[in-house]
Design a protein that fits this description.
alpha+beta; 5 strands
Length: about 140
């Protein structure tokens, strides 16, 4: 083919050879999706995991903070079952006992025999621990309610 005032190109005689490709596209022609950032995924998974663990720990703390074994001297408690006391506000009408002493590392038999003998105000003894091991003894006095 001849053009009047421009460069002259020969007529193609056979199939056109493949071209190098369009810049920015892979040789297959269609753009491939970018690979996801694995570090970002790890950060997201770690964040979700930490939030779940924190939520579980918060629930455990809320559920056990009023257990009798956590009672300190001056706390008021109420009997909540045969072998269980629960910490309550001293102004609460259910606050029937007050902790006058807390004795650590005593067996259940020591708790019943002598753990609170040094505290004459103690009317009741509460022991919390595992059978055959040492535990915590609460020496309790009646509040008069």
């Amino acid at each position: 083919m001849t053009q009047a005032n421009g460069p002259q190109y020969p007529e193609p005689t056979g199939p056109v050879p493949p071209q190098a490709g369009v810049p920015g596209l892979p040789p297959g022609g269609a753009p491939q999706p970018k690979a996801k950032n694995p570090k970002r995924r790890q950060k997201i998974v770690l964040t979700v995991f930490l939030v779940v663990v924190a939520a579980i720990l918060a629930l455990v703390w809320v559920a056990t903070r009023s257990n009798g074994e956590n009672a300190q001297v001056g706390n008021c408690v109420t009997e909540s079952g045969e072998n269980y006391v629960k910490i309550v506000d001293c102004g609460d009408s259910t606050a029937t006992l007050k902790v006058v002493a807390r004795v650590e590392d005593k067996t259940q038999s020591e708790a019943l025999v002598s753990a609170c003998s040094a505290y004459p105000d103690a009317d009741q003894v509460f022991w919390e621990g595992k059978e055959g091991e040492t535990g915590v003894v609460l020496c309790l006095a009646k509040t008069g309610k």
